[in-house]
Amino acid sequence: MNALTDNLISPVVLCFVLGIAARWIKSDLAVPEPLYQGLSIYLLLAIGLKGGSALAVTPGGDLILPGAVTLALGIITPVSAFFLMRRCGRLGVEDAAAVAAHYGSVSVVTFLAAVEAVKRTGVELEGFLPALVAVLEVPGIIVALLFANQAGTGKGSWKKALHEVVTGKSIVLLLGGLLIGWACGPQKLEDVQPFFATAFKGALCIFMIELGLAAGKRLRDAGRAGLRLLILGCIIPVLHGVLGVSAGLLAGLSPGGAAVLGAMAGSASYIAAPAAVRVALPGANPAYYLTLALGITFPFNLAFGIPLFQTLANHFSLWL
Amino acid sequence: MNALTDNLISPVVLCFVLGIAARWIKSDLAVPEPLYQGLSIYLLLAIGLKGGSALAVTPGGDLILPGAVTLALGIITPVSAFFLMRRCGRLGVEDAAAVAAHYGSVSVVTFLAAVEAVKRTGVELEGFLPALVAVLEVPGIIVALLFANQAGTGKGSWKKALHEVVTGKSIVLLLGGLLIGWACGPQKLEDVQPFFATAFKGALCIFMIELGLAAGKRLRDAGRAGLRLLILGCIIPVLHGVLGVSAGLLAGLSPGGAAVLGAMAGSASYIAAPAAVRVALPGANPAYYLTLALGITFPFNLAFGIPLFQTLANHFSLWL
Amino acid sequence: MNALTDNLISPVVLCFVLGIAARWIKSDLAVPEPLYQGLSIYLLLAIGLKGGSALAVTPGGDLILPGAVTLALGIITPVSAFFLMRRCGRLGVEDAAAVAAHYGSVSVVTFLAAVEAVKRTGVELEGFLPALVAVLEVPGIIVALLFANQAGTGKGSWKKALHEVVTGKSIVLLLGGLLIGWACGPQKLEDVQPFFATAFKGALCIFMIELGLAAGKRLRDAGRAGLRLLILGCIIPVLHGVLGVSAGLLAGLSPGGAAVLGAMAGSASYIAAPAAVRVALPGANPAYYLTLALGITFPFNLAFGIPLFQTLANHFSLWL
Amino acid sequence: MALRIPLRKVTIIAERVLRDDLITLIKERGASGWTLTMVEGEGSRGIRASEWEGRNIQIDTLVSSEVAETIMDEVGRRYFKDWSVIVYVADVEVLRKDKYIG
Amino acid sequence: MALRIPLRKVTIIAERVLRDDLITLIKERGASGWTLTMVEGEGSRGIRASEWEGRNIQIDTLVSSEVAETIMDEVGRRYFKDWSVIVYVADVEVLRKDKYIG
Amino acid sequence: MALRIPLRKVTIIAERVLRDDLITLIKERGASGWTLTMVEGEGSRGIRASEWEGRNIQIDTLVSSEVAETIMDEVGRRYFKDWSVIVYVADVEVLRKDKYIG
Ligand SMILES: Nc1ncnc2c1ncn2[C@@H]1O[C@H](COP(=O)(O)O)[C@@H](O)[C@H]1O
Ligand SMILES: Nc1ncnc2c1ncn2[C@@H]1O[C@H](COP(=O)(O)O)[C@@H](O)[C@H]1O
Ligand SMILES: Nc1ncnc2c1ncn2[C@@H]1O[C@H](COP(=O)(O)O)[C@@H](O)[C@H]1O
Ligand code: NA
Ligand code: NA
Ligand code: NA
Question: Which end of chain D is more exposed for a tag (fewer CB within 10 A), N or C?
């Protein structure tokens, strides 16, 4: 319990709460769209650079197993999300596939929050984790869209959706940052560290305010989605998170790294996935996937998921 | 005199002058609106965080007297501004109430400039001053609107105006920042300090350019407002400032803190007040209140008010 | 060769490449316009402040020769560019004058890249170089427009074009920054250094992404401009660069400073010049001047020009 | 030929503070939708708070002739005295959705 | 008197993701130009992805009566079922360029 | 019924650099107000400086028929040759302010 509140009382989490609260009291607080987009460019590039410079000093062999395991998570999680949404959530094929695409991909901010939480406990972390974010981002979306395609319900353009995912700004910046970071190495990045590393967590706070505002809007719609979906929005992250933690430990990650991988697997994308899904599955109802991803699963992970995955990773690691 | 020029020759003040000059030569220089809004989010949150973390280490008892005195200033200053505007300024009830709302509230940037000026002299300052800004922001506006309401001239919506003030983004961010800063305490804020504290004064420079551009526009309209109002725009800040300095010293603030409280009392809001006044008193002429607040009183305080309040606070404190 | 790749493998240059690549794969990556404008305000002000604070500690006499030589470059380079474009480029008078205005002025980002490149080699640099940027920015544009005017083809408004150049935001911020930096001196600037100096290179990275996106767009049009112009877009920077390096060394600049002056002379403006040219020479085809300045000469200088000027400056300096 | 309904497009240009009020007003009076654009402008009024507050808003709403009538009248009555607002109306033909979705 | 051609102004308001598709569509069907504005809006549909994705787009294109017909029909056919889109048309008179450039 | 004056809405779409010039022009020719929107667009002209400079502007002004005539003619004469500009006009009915303020 103490670990839980300790996780929640941080500037980053509280700024998210501030955003929700501001929406709740109908404040006119709003992060202007260009600023929000600018911040997401900054955050993605910063994550990429950091991961890339870590890759530059990591022996290639150390990456194979974690990479493979992450890829596997990217294939398994959309499948399980799809069937849970079909069976327990009683959604149609198109809606279930749309939701699955979100759970199959990864929420970058959840990743960041997990990294912070782990670091606060003083535990060491693998530097190359951002590279795993890039690995996990795309496959899940593709797998999920395949379901709808197979069922013949995907009326949207497949080609365009794929282009949207692969050339979407989040993957371009993440991969671009990784490559730049890797090519430059830690030393040449030193000059840009005050901007990209030191200022990072403060900038994240502003971003969290906007996420809070957006989540607050979704939370109000959460009722409409039905209790059934609300519960699934809390169960799926736990399920996928446990899977991610176990897979991470088996792949040789440190307990901290495994907790972060768990948070990644348990998270639902709300940047890359919605754009692709809107193009590929226009008939799917955004009320489902946006409310689940942003209104339920993201806050759930922030508050409960991440400390849970940390605890599990610590316990599981003792058995290995 | 030396102290005066020394106060004026600072990047923050000169950036304000640059803005005025750019408007004057009809340059196309403009701070894009989303950026300006982003900067105001940043500044307000940063002030709040700083004040909040100071609150966390201040014994509650030390706050009661300064808080009460600030509240009293928030009730007295709109009243005096209202009557001065009615009698000497010869404004109608609605216009006088509108102007009074601005003088009853506080200009956050004047506060910041005062803090800087005091710090440059090497004098120590109470860390909880930002909390007093939050205390001073709202009541003055409400008191001023009551005048118009009583006179039956307030045709606008009262309820909406109140909502506007209380849920306005400036108060939400300031209070939100205070709460977050207080909950986290200095230690947990350390990670976000490079962004919110170290970068603060540079970011303020960009904000000042925009304020200069806006003030430059108003300065051109100043003629229309008439000499009578121009003079009042310089007298009121001195009057309220002297009141604020005295009240601050009596409440036990350090001379530096009292000087800052003087600047706060002497300042006129140009963020929170205009929005509320436009809603509550649509018949009041913005030419009066915007020109006075931004075109006259703000530059006056920046150039003369702040050094005056510093000198007075130092002298007065010797008599106590 | 090693120096060449070493120059290219830097976060700033690679972010430019990332922008080009993103455009190439038709990614939806875009730096929102207000953010781009905000970054340019920041960069110009930062450069000005830095140069200004250096001016404050430089004896006036040291500036006369470099300043005069820079002014001379601002008069010679548009003339040579004009005739090359007329003779070898076979452009009409209006188009040639438009292109000449760009080569006569200076690209601030090329200047920055050159400063970085020189600093990376550990060579010392004159601090007042940003002041030379301000000197070089305007005259070249005016000289070039005179050609069109003389030929009677400039149908646009001269007065307005001049106003556009002299009160344009780039010159206002650069000069304003220089004055503020000079008035405050290094000590009073210390407070704003974390924002304007430490964070500078990181912020430049984001700016470079947008420049890369814009250049990528131009590169696709480069074909239309014709091989003839493509070649001129690489020859002119070398010619002007060699001139700049020699002039710099003769004026007593250090080899590093001369290399930077070479890069300045060899660069083509794509911020101040296009705006002025569009107003003064509306009949000139932007396809020519924008493609040359941003699509060809800027990347050429970034990749080849700057290391070349460094090498030349080092060699030439041995003969003096 | 594409099936179209003749409707009226009511355009309201106003200060930004009126945003929520105006949207509520037109919905109450029977509009089923609206489109809002951020604009700048100058009119017969002098200095306005909106100069500092930022830009104006333009709201377009496609409505029947009667609804157009009520909205215009209501906006005029409520806002013309104290606020910076103009309203105008034009004829448009809107493509019928039911023909394609049905 | 200034010489003008009577044309039709087709206005399409749609989710942002359709931007490139719609521009391609109208150009293929014969439009020689278009003007795009970022807008916000509310219509008959419920929650839309675009709420998170950001604002809507409004595309205006000045075309002949026949081209207007084809564009409207095509937009209705392709997008009305699954997307948040409306289309309307109005009469305008466009100043002829040739008279001044010629 | 709400009282309305039939007026003409002149719309000018142009490069951003022309902003101040165009506003001066329409005011000189008798317009009492204008509304400006930032837009993007593509027309018959090729690459334009405004691509780099940013978006186009759209100016709408409600004027009498005669003023509309003069404005259009003047814009055509001054800008059609060298600039990226189009102008069109449409009929609108504007709500009379005096009826509500009076
Ligand atoms: N004649 C006009 N033509 C176009 N827009 C106008 C006109 N008059 C006023 N406006 C717009 O309506 C807003 C309010 O007008 P007003 O109440 O006259 O100040 C202005 O800021 C303009 O955006
Ligand atoms: N009656 C209307 N008047 C004006 N704009 C509308 C109207 N109905 C819909 N819109 C616009 O068209 C978009 C899509 O509408 P819909 O498909 O009905 O959700 C909305 O977001 C509005 O911007
Ligand atoms: N047919 C059209 N329909 C709508 N807008 C147009 C059309 N043609 C041109 N425009 C707009 O007018 C601007 C200038 O057009 P142009 O001078 O033809 O390049 C374009 O950038 C568009 O915004
Ligand atoms: Na996931
Ligand atoms: Na005050
Ligand atoms: Na040059």
Answer: N
- φ, ψ of residue D12 to 5 degrees: the values are -115, 125
> Within the 152-181 window of chain C, which residues sit less than 8 Å (CB to CB) from chain B?
163-164, 167-169, 172-173, 176, 179-180
Choose among A9, A200, A206: nearest Cβ to B184: A9
Amino acid identity of A145? L
As a whole number of angstroms, the distance between CA C72 and CA C69 comes to: 5
* Cβ of residue B5 closer than 8 Å to a chain A Cβ: no
Can you give chain B as a three-state secondary structure string? CHHHHHHHCCHHHHHHHHHHHHHHCCCCCCCCHHHHHHHHHHHHHHHHHHHHHHHHCCCCHHHHHHHHHHHHHHHHHHHHHHHHHHHCCCCCHHHHHHHHHHHHCCCHHHHHHHHHHHHHCCCCCCCCHHHHHHHHHCHHHHHHHHHHHHCCCCCCCHHHHHHHHHHCHHHHHHHHHHHHHHHHHHHHHHHHHHHHHHCHHHHHHHHHHHHHHHHHHHHHHHHHHCHHHHHHHHHHHHHHHHHHHHHHHHCCCCHHHHHHHHHHHHCCCCCHHHHHHHHHCCCCCHHHHHHHHHHHHHHHHHHHHHHHHHHHHHHHHHHC
D9 lines ligand 2 (CB under 6 A): no
The pLDDT of residue E50 is above 50 = no
Handedness of CA F36, F39, F43, F47 (dihedral sign): positive
- Identify the DSSP state of B26: T
CB atoms within 10 A of CB B187: 9
Q: pLDDT tens across B80-92, in order?
A: 999 999 999 999 9
Q: Judging by beta carbons within 10 Å of its beta carbon (0-12, 13-18, 19+), is residue B186 exposed, middle or buried?
A: middle
Could you tell me the two tokens for B70?
């600030």
DSSP C10: S
First to last CA, chain E: 17
pLDDT 10s digits, C184-224: 999 999 999 999 999 999 999 999 999 999 899 888 777 77
Q: What's the one-letter identity of residue F86?
A: I
Residue C15's nearest CA partner among C309, C308, C302 is C302
